[in-house]
Amino acid sequence: MDAVGGSSALDKQITDQDGRVEFNTITGEHRIRITGDDIHPYEGDFEIVPTETYHIENVGVRRKPERKATSAEAMNTVPAIRLKIPDNARKEFEKGGKAMEEKSWDESRKHFQAAVDLYPDYDLAYNGLGIACSQLNDIPAARQAFVKATELNDKFAGAQRNLARILLSEHNYNEVASLLNRSLKVEPMNAWALTNAAYAELQLHRFKEATEHALRVHGLQHDGSANAHVIAGYALEALGQQQEAAEQWRLYLKEDPKGPNAKRAQEAVARLTKSPQP
Fold it and tell me: Alpha-carbon distance 157 to 180, whole Å?
């Protein structure tokens, strides 16, 4: 779907026998909807950053029980507020999404604002408004929009991540950890959320939680998230697990040998594997 999730798909594909599907798209925030006769509908957000030439997103879906699901169960992943969007608000939202794709941020902001004026419970439009305001460097307005989106929909993982980005820049690690842990209950395989939840927890000296989140990143496609191994290295060392910490630093060097933490990683491996003096 478009950058913040419009009413209709921009592209639609059928997965192959292994559950894979490929799309040609642009960088930025995206929304994907997955449906099938034997699975519960899924709707979620992910981001393709400008440095990526390709992006892999792993999504887990829940199989329906053998009995016939009720209509309420079949739609249990779609917030009720999204079932009541009036047509005029939806049209403004779609115009905002189109302007976003064209990087016309002032125009995008205008349409998203019109959408929430017409439908004050429009969580998706508030998220789009926040993105547009962020691009225009109006951070107070962006924060207000993302907060409203998360208040309207406490399972809106994309808006929670967007708000966390602002809070990260302010070093508000308690709120970052809280937001990203909530987002991970909805989208548990988001590498960015796992990495930054781990970073916030490391800053808060919650070393066990930081380790658990950082280690989960390695099992996912995580291009650009090699720093998860840095976080795991520090957290494991704080827990007294020196050999495991050294292995995380080695993984960092393997994934990003010329990265900004390469020298620090080399020093950490040397320190952690140094034989004790007799």
Answer: 8
As given in the structure block, the two tokens for residue 181 are 């842990």
Tokens of 153: 């929909």
- CB-based contact 191:181 (threshold 8 Å): no
**In 3D, which of 25, 18, 13, 100 has the Cα closest to residue 55?**
25
**Contact, 126 vs 146, CB < 8 A?**
yes
What mean pLDDT is predicted for residues 110-127? 97
Q: How many residues does the chain have?
A: 278
- 96 and 115 in contact (C-beta within 8 Å)? yes
Distance separating alpha carbons of residues 164 and 271, to the nearest angstrom:
34
Tokens 């508030």 belong to residue = 126
Give the predicted TM-score (pTM) of the model.
0.74
Query: In this predicted model, which residue has the larger pLDDT, 4 or 80?
Result: 80
Dump pLDDT digits (tens) for 34-79.
888 778 888 887 788 777 766 778 888 888 776 544 443 443 457 8
Q: Which residues pair with 45 in a beta bridge?
A: 31
